[in-house]
C-alpha cells in the first residue's frame, strides 16, 4: 500500500505494508479521503493522533471498498461500499479501521466524493441534534457557513425544519450556502450581532472573539456549540449574560473521543443522515478532488481558506 507520511513537517508518499485485520477490524481499499483542518494541524505537529492510530499518516475520514475483514465483524462483508471516520491513517490507499466506525455508503453516491462526507456530517449532526437538541422552528447561527462542517450544518438545519443564519468571509460563500438552504447571511462587520438577530442555537466553527457574538445573539436558554478555533482558543466571556439568559456552552470534538463514543456517533449518522443522503435531501459539497500523489496541492487549497465545502483526495494512485 501507499501512505501519505509526515516527515519533518512535510508530506511524502511512501510504501507501507498493507495491514491485516483482526477481531472486528476491516481493511478498506480507500477510494476517497477528505482533507480537514485537523490534518493541517497534525502536519505542523500540533494535533497528535489518538493512541492506537498511525502517528505519521493523517486522514480522519474515508470512503472505499472492504478488502478484508476480521472474524469478529458482524454486518460488514467483503466488497461492501462503506464510509466512515478514523483516528488517522486515511490518507493512504488502504486503511485498517474498526467495523463500528464504518457505515454503508449509498449506491447513488460517487464513492470518491463520499470520502468528504463522514467527518463533517457526523460532526454537524452530533453537535446540532444529539447535543443541542435542535427542534423544529428554531433558529440556528452557523459561523463559517462555507466550511465543510458549515455546509453540512446548513443542510441538516433545513432537514430538521429549523432556519439558519450564517457568517462567512465573503458574500460569494454566503450566496453558495443559500443554494443549500441558508436563510440569511452576514459577513464580518463592526456590528455582526445586530445583523444576525436572535437565535436559539449557535454552531461556532470559528472561535476566538466570536464567542461574545454568540452570547449576545442567543435567546434565553440558548445553546452554544464550540467546534472550531480558527480565530483563536481564547476569548472574553460575559458570564453575567450567560447567567441571565441561562445559556448552555458546550465544547465538542470528535477525534479524541473514546472509540465507543465515536462508534455511537457513526451509528447515529448511519440511522439518521445516510437515509437523507440516499434520498438526495442532503448532499456532499466537494470543492475539488485531488490525486493522493498531489496531496500538497490539496492541503494548500484547505490552508488558503478560499474553498467552499470539502477538498477530497482520490486515493487510488
Architecture overview:
It is built from nine helices and 15 strands. By secondary structure, it is of the alpha/beta class. A hairpin with a 2-residue loop joins β1 and β2. The longest helix is centred in the last third of the chain and has 20 residues, at 259-278. The radius of gyration is 19 Å and the shape is globular. The model has no long low-confidence stretch (mean pLDDT 96).
User: So, the CATH homologous superfamily of the largest domain?
Assistant: Medium-chain alcohol dehydrogenases, catalytic domain
Separation of termini?
A: 10 Å
Q: Write the H/E string, N to C.
A: EEEHEEEEHEHEHEHEHEHEHEHE
CATH topology label of the largest domain = Quinone Oxidoreductase, Chain A, domain 1
Q: Architecture of the largest domain, according to CATH? A: Alpha-Beta Complex
**Sheet with most strands:** 7 strands, mixed
Rg estimate, integer Å? 19 Å
Question: Judging from the principal axes of the Cα atoms, what is the shape?
Answer: globular
Specify the number of helices: 9
Question: How many strands?
Answer: 15
Portion in beta strands: 25-35%
Could you estimate the helical fraction of the residues in percent?
25-40%
**What integer is the average pLDDT?**
96
Q: Which regions contain 5 or more consecutive residues with pLDDT less than 50?
A: none
Please report the first level of CATH classification, the CATH class of the largest domain: Alpha Beta
Tally of separate domains: 2
Structural class: alpha/beta
